[in-house]
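Review form for a predicted model. The reviewer records the input and the model, then writes brief findings.
Reviewer: anonymous (R2)
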Amino acid sequence: MNRLIAVSLLSLGLAACGPSSDPGAAAPASPAASTDTAAPAVSETPAAQPAPKGRKLRQALPNDVVLPFAYHARTDRVVQTPRGDYQRRVNVELLEGDAASTTDALIAAMRKGGYRPGKPTTRADGSIRVAFSHKQTGRVVAVVSNQLPAKPVNAAARGKLLLVLPADAPSA
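Model under review:
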């Protein structure tokens, strides 16, 4: 009997020390809450964050070019052409926008990196091709399409982008 009373008193004491479950009870004031300016709620997300998210490139693009749209990297590899030179081929799935808006954003990003864009051309399949030139790094070709890859990796894919860049021979 003494044990039952001791356990009951201990439970009652712990319950009294815990936070109030009364919804009308006032929350203790914190220094941040006492100021006139309220901090933004944690659930707010900045508008600059692209959503949905995808896998990023393994290696940065030359001249600090950053793709300014949401994408999911599919492949990023160096291949040897039949002429014997090497190219870096970057394939990404586009997670937002369409071919036209993605091309505009890509042109702006490449200009920031010092590239001069050529005139974008629309192909028969609706894809848009743009060639860029740079004095130090050479020629880059981009093909943007609203067509999905045969087997999209990311369920949110809305199109695809292929970048072909000059590359050095891979190290053995």
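Findings: The mean pLDDT is 80.
Further findings: The radius of gyration is 28 Å.
Recommendation: see findings above.
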